[in-house]
Amino acid sequence: MSSIHYEQSLSFKRSLDFVFTYLADHSHMSDWSPSVTSASKTTPGPVRVGTHFDILTHFGLQEMTLDYHVTALEQPHYIELKGKGENFSIVERIRLEGGDDHTHLQYQVEVYYQDPISKLVKFLSPIVKAGLKKNLAYLQKALDHEPTQWKPSLWTRLSDRLVLPGMLHFSNKGYAGAKDRWIGVTEDLTEKNILITGPTSGIGAATARQLAKLNAQLIFVCRNQKKAQIFADLLVEEGYRRPIIEIADISSVAETEALAARLIARDLPIHVLINNAGALFNQRGVSSEGLELSFATLLLGPYVLTEKLYPLLKKAGQGKGDSRARVINVSSGGMYTQALALGDMEFEKEDYNGDKAYARAKRGLVDMTEVWAERWKDEGIIVHAMHPGWADTPGVSLAMPKFYDWTKTWLRTPEQGADTVTWLAASKEAAETSGLFWLDRTPHSTSMIPGTRSPPRHQNLLAQKLEEYHQRVLDS
């Protein structure tokens, strides 16, 4: 057996307790390490000796899965982890010293190779050490709050116009390609109240967990009390803050109005509103108020909730820069295929198609993003839309089984799909702009196919029509 040894010192202007907690939870590794595609904690409960993590990493073109586990934990000064791959094992030792405003880190790693790989250690050593040095450089940037460079490249702008290259960005390969330029999100969201609709599965659950790791006070809006309670209890068991649970069906104007009234009565500022709840309906159905379900759930519901929570968003957004309140609308790449249908918003004049209904509603939500961004530009509220790419979620596998079978090797994990939501909710640089449409922390065009872009006149008509629907339901 042969081995590679590497050692490096780092210093950060961050508290010792924060750095210890952040590094002990190795599921954060995918945030700051360019070589790690995904990382997840597989042992229930808070991080302790014996906690396991699954780490998917790449070395050149090869992907490898590592089983990491914590072997020593002495808060806040010492962390030791061991990892095992197919032909090698790793021991990491992290020693920490510091105080409330600074931390010094001493990092040591030993990589042990078994035959036949051990014969290549002399060749591998400089490559492995260069990779470790790069990982630690990104950790330094993350803990020093160095901003991510988010402005789109010429290739990004061009590929959006060429459709097929643009769609390839939606895959897990697109995510991996974008990730190399990211800086990890290490904001402390202790003072932030973040409301998320549909948080118990898929992109919503992944987003909730990522924000919980950053100490946010989450407000869950769910239809199912039992599912919400189970997930909230799980987050508490893992050592995070207990979410506030509100039960409401966003497809119902009446329930959304009642939800907003309860929140306003509580007078809790909403620093971030994430309109995430949604579903794809293959058969045309109607809500409890007689509205087509895709329209009611994906567009009218978020419209009513956002409008009604304006006072709480404004209350949270009294500052400037990154202290402004944020609205994040979760859309879909499918919206690229459709234009607004202002004359048939409930799909009554043509044969129903669930994919089209979903895409049209998501197109409308992106258009409302631009309307709200312009309307509230001087109100301390920024508004963004995003789409998660092609993600492996229960909603996709159940509602789109053929698409799922064709693309499952290209699908992102829910955590990868949720990354941009978390970044938009937490990062300082996401507050530099408003009204943009994001994928992988990069703004993209809202239109790839000619004829699908909505002119400002149509966007304003959409806002008027949504308010008419809102008032009509209230008056009925």
Description:
- With 476 residues, this protein is an alpha/beta fold.
- The chain folds into two domains: 2-143, START domain (Alpha-D-Glucose-1,6-Bisphosphate, Chain A, domain 4); 154-475, Rossmann fold (3-Layer(aba) Sandwich).
- It is 39% helix and 22% strand.
- It is built from 16 helices and 15 strands.
- The chain has helices spanning 16-24, 29-32, 121-143, 154-161, 164-168, 172-179, 202-213, 225-237, 253-266, 293-308, 310-316, 354-375, 394-399, 401-407, 414-426, 456-475; strands spanning 2-12, 36-41, 52-59, 62-74, 78-84, 88-98, 103-113, 193-197, 217-222, 244-247, 272-275, 325-330, 381-386, 437-439, 442-444.
- An eight-stranded mixed beta sheet has the order 10-9-8-11-12-13-14-15, with helices on both faces. Strands 1-7-6-5-4-3-2 form a seven-stranded antiparallel beta sheet.
- The longest helix has 23 residues, at 121-143.
- It starts with a strand and ends with a helix.
